[in-house]
Design a protein that fits this description.
The chain folds into 2 domains: about 300 residues, 5 Propeller (Tachylectin-2, Chain A), CATH 2.115.10.20; about 140 residues, Exo-inulinase, domain 1 (Jelly Rolls, Sandwich). By secondary structure, the chain is mostly beta strands. A hairpin with a 5-residue loop joins strand 3 and strand 4. The radius of gyration is 22 Å and the shape is globular. Bound molecules: beta-D-fructofuranose. Beta-D-fructofuranose (FRU) binds next to strand 1, strand 5, strand 9 and strand 13. It holds the Pfam family Glyco_hydro_32C. Belongs to the glycosyl hydrolase 32 family. Its EC number is 3.2.1.26. Enables the bacterium to metabolize sucrose as a sole carbon source. Pathway: Glycan biosynthesis; sucrose metabolism.
């Protein structure tokens, strides 16, 4: 019996300029790469329902990382080494081929999903569309002895004529850890040891998912999505976090000497981020625009999940900044607002558009203890998403009417406050001070958004708002 893929039945929450699947469920971005003139992004995909299920790799390609053409599913869970899921992994271009290294997930008995084995597998394409799994899969059959069965999400790269991978793992004592492998041909892998490990499960996680390790501005940065970090006052408030360690990778030892874990995004909906290097040398990151405990209202409409806007990573002042990639400007359709006020009042910034880029600059040199509120509401419903800035504390609070808890983003002091807000039909991404802090949210507008701003002191505010493109996904491919 052939099961038919699910269809989208209602477009009310479909996003305008974010990468989505034609229908069905998406989670992690996978295999980001540039191959034969296109950027390729794959994603954890369940095309048969709007819920997580046996994972395939969905596939899309783009010339600019913004306008996506869906391609046929790249790999499916149909081999003895991956029969319950082609889990997350990465891509490497080698010998004219686009190679995928991914985790095979296998249950001993499908009625018990708590008992599984995970291994690493290879697939390759020479045209960027059709993929063949390697006949001798798995290429890494089992985890090393100093790791549990949680053994997934390989990230592969080339260094000095050889290939290396980091794989997410867990110590037998229940600490997240990073496993390090080496190969000359992607087929025969040697285990080199544990590169890094959580100090405690409560502070750094009981399992490390979706690692990525790359060099940026003279540092080695480990991007990681740990499970199990306990909330601490204003930090680690989501079910799982994505963040980074900055350090130095010693290939000989091997070891990664690193500093403390930093959360990357302060919103409710950001996870499992991965990066790639562009041909012009930029480090670009894309994340899953969701968290497992999101209410996902779009599931009622035959789909769930999307990927974030691609963000360029910049490391400076001992901090990772995230900025919308320069190409994002090409999404601008028209200027809707361009004005400045010396204001102490509530003003309507814009109403009636679902795809917006809102830029605000506020001069902080002539004002003290300013309170600023940006409210994105959804009349006539009581729903709203509110950003509150206090100059003395120099931090933003974010309230999402539909989600529990406040989210907090602290900034370093500055003479000018900059906000860049990307609003889409059911998402909001907020970049503060050139990406020093970012908040990513799913937010389900039922009607046309109304954006207002309130200041409690006279402050000089400059505002530029663009309408953005609403049609960046093209799902019509020929098989
Ligand atoms: C992270 C994750 C990965 C795994 C994938 C399965 O969200 O749990 O560790 O490979 O999702 O879909």
């Amino acid at each position: 019996m052939t099961i038919a893929p699910i269809q989208v039945t209602n477009h009310r929450y479909r996003l305008g300029y974010h990468l989505m699947a034609p229908a069905g469920w998406i989670n992690d971005p996978n295999g980001l790469c540039y191959f034969q003139g296109y950027y390729h992004v794959f994603y954890q995909y369940h095309p048969y329902s709007a819920t997580w299920g046996p994972m395939s790799w969905g596939h899309a390609r783009s010339r600019d990382l913004l306008h996506w053409q869906t391609l046929p599913i790249a790999i499916k869970p149909n081999s003895w080494t991956d029969h319950d899921g082609c889990f997350s992994g990465s891509a490497l271009i080698k010998d004219q081929g686009l190679h995928l290294l991914y985790t095979g997930n296998n249950y001993y008995n499908r009625s018990n999903v708590n008992e599984y084995w995970q291994n690493q597998n290879l697939a390759v394409s020479y045209d960027g569309r059709h993929f063949t799994k390697y006949l001798n899969n798995p290429v890494i059959a089992q985890p090393p002895l100093d790791n549990t069965e949680n053994f997934r999400d390989p990230k592969v790269w080339e260094y000095d004529g050889l290939y290396y991978a980091v794989i997410g793992g867990q110590s037998p004592t229940g600490l997240g850890q990073l496993l390090f492998y080496q190969t000359a041909d992607l087929k025969h892998w040697h285990y080199l040891g544990i590169l890094a490990q959580a100090q405690t499960a409560a502070t750094e996680g009981y399992m490390w998912e979706c690692p990525d390790l790359f060099r940026l501005n003279g540092q080695d940065i480990l991007l990681i999505s740990p499970q199990g970090i306990q909330a601490q006052a204003q930090r680690y408030l989501n079910l799982y976090q994505t963040g980074y360690f900055v350090g130095r990778l010693d290939y000989q030892q091997p070891a990664l000497v690193h500093g403390s874990f930093q959360e990357l995004d302060q919103g409710h909906d950001f996870y499992a981020a991965q990066t790639m290097l562009t041909p012009d040398g930029r480090r670009i990151m894309i994340g899953w625009l969701n968290m497992w405990d999101n209410e996902m209202l779009e599931q009622a409409d035959g789909w769930a999940g999307a990927l974030t806007l691609p963000r360029e990573l910049v490391y400076k002042n001992e901090h990772l900044y995230q900025q919308p990639i320069a190409e994002t400007k090409t999404l601008r359709q028209q200027v809707l607002v361009n004005k400045s006020w010396p204001t102490k009042q509530t003003v309507t910034l814009i109403q009636g558009y679902s795809q917006l880029e809102i830029n605000l600059k506020i001069d902080l040199t002539q004002v003290n203890d300013l309170n600023l509120n940006i409210k994105m509401s959804d009349p006539p419903t009581p729903n709203h998403l509110t950003l509150q800035y206090n100059q003395t504390r120099h931090q933003f609070l974010l309230y999402n009417f539909n989600r529990p808890g406040v989210r907090i983003a602290a900034l370093s002091s500055c003479p000018e406050l900059k906000l860049q807000i990307f609003l889409d039909t059911s998402s909001v991404e907020i970049f503060l001070n050139d990406g020093e802090a970012v908040l990513t949210e799913r937010y389900y507008f039922q009607n046309s958004p109304l954006i207002t701003m309130t200041t409690d002191k006279a402050a000089d505010v400059q505002c530029v708002i663009y309408q953005l493109s609403s049609q960046t996904n093209n799902y019509h491919y020929e098989i």
